[in-house]
Design a protein that fits this description.
The chain has eight helices and no strands. It is mainly α. It is 70% helix and 0% strand. The termini are far apart.
Length: 192
C-alpha cells in the first residue's frame, strides 16, 4: 500500500465516493472484490486517496485525478442547492404536493374560526376571534403541509434528496403549530 502524504486526500476520496463517484474505478473495485460493496468501497477509497495524493503533490487542487476524467470533487464547501420558490413548489406536478395538503386544512380552520366569530355577540370576543384566526389558520395549514411532507420524505428517495435541508426548520414549525392548534381548538370547543 502506498503511503499517503496529504491527509486531505482521504477527505477528497471520501467526498468523491459520496458525491461524484468514478464509475470506471467503482466497477473495477467491485469486480476485484467479488461484488462485495463494503470491500469495494474500502478499495475504492484507498485507490482514490492515492490518486488524490498524487494530484495534490503536483500542486493541483481542482479537477479530477482520474485518467479518464470521471469522478472528482470541488475543494472547499459543497455547492449550495438552489432554493425553490413557493410558486415553483405549487406548480409541482404531484398529487402529493405538500402545499396541496395545507390549503384544505387551512380552509377548514378558517371555517371553524369564522363560526366562532359569527357566534359572538360582543365586540371584544369578535376581536379575540380575529386574533385567534391569525394564528389558528396558518397553524392548521402547517400541520397539513408537514403531514404530507413527512409522508413523501419517508416514501420517496428523490424527494428526500431534494428537500433534506428543510427538515430541521420544518420540524420546529410543526411542533409549535401542533401546540398552538391544540390549545386554540381546546378553547374553541370550550367556548362554543
Amino acid at each position: 500500500m502506498t503511503q499517503i502524504q496529504h491527509r486531505e486526500a482521504w477527505l477528497l476520496a471520501s467526498r468523491e465516493f459520496d458525491e461524484n463517484r468514478s464509475e470506471s474505478l467503482w466497477q473495477r473495485c467491485l469486480e476485484q472484490c467479488h461484488q462485495d460493496p463494503n470491500e469495494a468501497k474500502a478499495q475504492y477509497l484507498n485507490e482514490a486517496a492515492v490518486l488524490y495524493d498524487q494530484h495534490l503533490a503536483q500542486g493541483r487542487g481542482e479537477g479530477t485525478p482520474h485518467p479518464d476524467g470521471s469522478g472528482g470533487v470541488r475543494r472547499g464547501r459543497p455547492p449550495k442547492q438552489p432554493r425553490v420558490g413557493l410558486w415553483a413548489r405549487l406548480k409541482e406536478p404531484s398529487p402529493l404536493n405538500p402545499l396541496i395538503a395545507a390549503i384544505p386544512l387551512g380552509l377548514v380552520a378558517l371555517w371553524i374560526i369564522l363560526g366562532y366569530i359569527f357566534a359572538q355577540t360582543r365586540p371584544p370576543f369578535v376581536v379575540w376571534g380575529v386574533l385567534l384566526a391569525i394564528i389558528y389558520v396558518p397553524a392548521a395549514a402547517i400541520i397539513g403541509y408537514t403531514a404530507l411532507f413527512t409522508l413523501r420524505y419517508r416514501l420517496s428517495e428523490t424527494f428526500r434528496r431534494e428537500r433534506a435541508a428543510e427538515v430541521d426548520g420544518l420540524s420546529l414549525w410543526a411542533i409549535v403549530s401542533v401546540l398552538l392548534f391544540g390549545a386554540i381548538s381546546t378553547f374553541l370547543l370550550w367556548a362554543m
